Amino acid sequence: MSTLYPQVNEARMALDLGGVWDFRFPGDEKWQPIAVPASYNDQSPDPRFRNHVGITEYRRKITIPKAWKGMRVCLRFDAAAHNARILLDGKEIAFHRGGFLPFEVELDGHLEPGQTAELTVETDNRINHTTLPIGTEGGVSFLGSDNPGIEAVEAGKKFQQERGVNRPAFDFFNYTGLQRPVRMIATPREFIRDITLVPSMDGTVRWSVETEGTGGEVRVEILDADGKAVSAGKGREGSLRVAEPHLWEPWPGTPYLYTARVTFGEDVYEQPFGIREVKVEGTRFLVNGKPFRFHGPCKHEDSPFHGRGMDNCLNVTDINLYHWMNANCFRTSHYPYAEEMYRLCDREGIVIVDETPAVGMWAEEPYGWNLADYHMQVLADMIARDKNHPCVVMWSLGNEPDTDTMPDAAYAYWHPLYEAAHRLDPQDRPVTVVGCQNKYGVEKVIRSMDVVLINRYYGWYNLSGDLEAAKYAFRMELDWWENQHKPLILSEYGADTIAGLHGAVAEMFTEEFQVAFYEMVSECLDERDFVVGEMPWNFADFSTCQGPMRVGGNRKGLFTRDRRPKMAAHWLRERWGKMQAD
Ligand code: BDP
Asked: Rounded distance, CA 379 to CA 548, Å?
């Protein structure tokens, strides 16, 4: 479902419902305070906040202002993780599946302007083989054991099923709740439902506008960055021309933004966009016809207190740190991020590889899970939401699925998604799925993508600590990929590093080792022309579920979780500064 980002203008209104709501776990009588938007998990020392599996309730009162009489009024959830049931005065008015994309709930017929009602949102954090991301039943121990008690628990026979299955099949904390803004929004009854813009470098802008209602003509006016009208057209579909267009260029170029001001009857919507083209040609990735090299760490939506909660201050800080490090991109590992981040990246020229929440598909069974239709829906919704952002230059269908155990079944699953992404995206951006360290010579999916994205941990999870051996093995793999004649991005590589842990000898977990690791990998990448990008793992340390391989979370950050640079951040900053100058 497409839903335009909420806007306040002469025709539209939005009320932010953020603040302190009521919250409780099932069986509790008492309500307690909870901040929205934010994950609920880190807001209390009560272990249930961190560990609860299942439904939780959020509650607050809402009133439609009398002044909104005659308008179409909706609740707009930017996301509710993972599934959510919406109730008004105890009556269900909507259910939404999936935790990372927006949805609207019309209040018409449920609440009149001037009336007050109790809004309850039940969020459900259970993950399993029908959700994205994926949850699993087993895997509670690191080492196998023939101890019957451990085996029974591991097989999911005890505890897991009784408590609900909620073991992430992925390496980030399963943060939950109302993590993104919730708003009450109003538009005219006859309104603009969707806008699609397809710009070309010569200044041609094709548009299509979807409307609800028949009254009125659609008009499209293009405003430049100073708000001056530079072109105009009429109709639900059409194309116009911006003379001598300023292109949207990735940082450190100028990410010039235009605005399409669309009017229809009483309604108005101003859609920002950039004029730019992306294309794969041979082994090159072109932005505006020029070879583009991706360099910037992958991210997570993750910070102390807020968890995965949308935080504009954090977003601005992070993007300024990207500028500081001379980084020009990130991948939204491993789910679509809050819309505010894409808007910021449009403005700041940071390029995004936009990823669906399909992470954790690593058992050989995934191709028997009956997930394909839902995955397709999530992909369509992500593209519908993000299609107009100039910062988005590629779609990632998912992260690290098993593609080598059953190569044909894997291809039969991923190829239709690949084709759908091309069909659904009006700008027809390149499409990829991120490959994990597997039998690359056997699998068929990763090599079939427009750009090959691979995650590799030579020297960390394999050949641990032996960087000479790691270099040998990595080079051997790069030789193989070179013969596939596709552009390649190293989409993850990194080493857990405890900030402040040093060693005259560069051993694992020290800051010196992290630098040596990046030196070794960079040397291999610099030898190859078909390598079009490097995306270290990860921008900052982040929370994961507890386990013997995680010391207070994943420590592969170039920054600590509170955004202090480790030595490797300085090293990459210098490397990328030189790259930028070339
Ligand atoms: C990769 C995953 C990423 C993990 C990383 C790691 O894509 O989500 O956090 O490994 O282990 O396989 O640090």
From this structure: 34
HSE-CB for 410 with a 13 A CA cutoff: 23
Report how far ligand 1's centroid is from the alpha carbon of 117 (Å): 44
| Same structural domain, 475 and 439 | yes
Kindly report the CATH number assigned to the domain that includes residue 28. 2.60.120.260
Note whether residue 151 is domain-resident. no
Instruction: Give the chain's end-to-end CA distance (angstroms, integer).
Output: 43
**pLDDT, mean of each 10-residue run, the chain (582 residues):** 90 98 97 98 96 94 97 98 97 97 97 98 92 77 62 62 71 97 97 98 98 92 98 97 98 97 97 98 98 98 98 98 98 98 98 97 83 97 98 98 95 98 98 94 97 98 97 98 98 98 98 98 98 98 93 97 98 96 80
Q: What is the number of structural domains in the chain?
A: 3
> Is residue 36 included in any domain, yes or no?
yes
In a domain, 33, yes or no: yes
Residue in 515, 508, 519 with CA at minimum distance from that of residue 549: 508
Output the CA 44–ligand 1 centroid distance in Å.
28
- The CATH number of residue 459's host domain is 3.20.20.80
* Best of 170, 300, 455 for a ligand 1 pocket test (most atoms within 8 Å of beta carbon): 455
* C-alpha pair distances (Å), 357 with each of 150, 240, 301, 438: 31, 36, 13, 21
Which residues are designated catalytic? Answer: 400, 492
The parent domain of residue 200 ranges over: 190-276
Ligand 1 center from residue 71 Cα (angstroms): 47
**pTM of this structure:** 0.97
Ligand 1 pocket, CB under 6 A: 171, 334, 399-400, 436, 455, 492, 537, 554, 556
Bridge partner list, 61: 118
Distance of CA 48 to the CA centre of its chain: 27
Query: How far apart (Å, rounded) are the C-alpha atoms in residues 398 and 414?
Result: 9
- Choose among 351, 162, 108: nearest CA to 252: 351
In a domain, residue 145? The reply is no
* Same domain assignment for residues 116 and 210: no
